[in-house]
Amino acid sequence: MIEYSRVILGATASDPLIARYADETGSLVVTWDTDFRTLMPRRPADNVLRFRKAGHILFTCDYPFGLPRLEATYEMLTWEIGRSAKLPDPRVLVEITAKGFLIER
Questions:
Q1: Residue (of 75, 78, 72, 76) closest to 97 by Cα position
Q2: 47-72: per-residue pLDDT in tens?
Q3: Which helix (H) or strand (E) holds 99?
Q4: Quick one: pLDDT at residue 36?
Q5: Helices within 2-103 (DSSP H only)
Q6: Do the Cβ atoms of 50 and 91 come closer than 8 Å?
Q7: What's the gap between Cα 103 and its chain centre?
Q8: What pTM value is reported for the model?
Q9: What is the dihedral of CA 38, 31, 27, 36, to 10 degrees?
Q10: CA atoms within 13 Å, Cβ hemisphere of 1
Q11: Which terminus of the chain is more exposed, N or C, with fewer CB under 10 A?
Q12: Cα(5)–Cα(14) distance, rounded to whole angstroms?
């Protein structure tokens, strides 16, 4: 199910609020906002993991290339999300670039 943060949390919802909501619901944040790389890292610099259930799909490609890149990686991402859900750390952190994608484990 897709939920839009601006509908659920309001158009002015801050990134930390969106991350907290995603964590509470075990959701993935799908975004072009690279602030989420810092907000929801695999290993925080201070080693305090704030969001234990939220993941993200971060696009670093130009906007027009986002949908084709997502379509090209959809099956692999779906498999990874299902696999990760069974692990002690269920978070999925993905970066989709112009040339491919990276999954942080």
A1: 72
A2: 677 888 899 999 999 999 999 999 99
A3: none
A4: 93
A5: 5-8, 15-25, 35-39, 63-84
A6: no
A7: 10
A8: 0.87
A9: 10
A10: 6
A11: N
A12: 10
Distance CA 21, CA 79 (A): 24
Asked whether the beta carbons of 84 and 91 are under 8 A apart, the reply is yes
* pLDDT per position as a tens digit, 70-81: 999 999 999 999
Q: Residue type for 104, please?
A: E
Pairing of strands 28-31, 55-59: parallel
Where along the chain do its domains lie? 5-104
* Eight-class DSSP state of 13: -
What is residue 23's three-state secondary structure?
A: helix
Radius of gyration of the chain (CA): 13
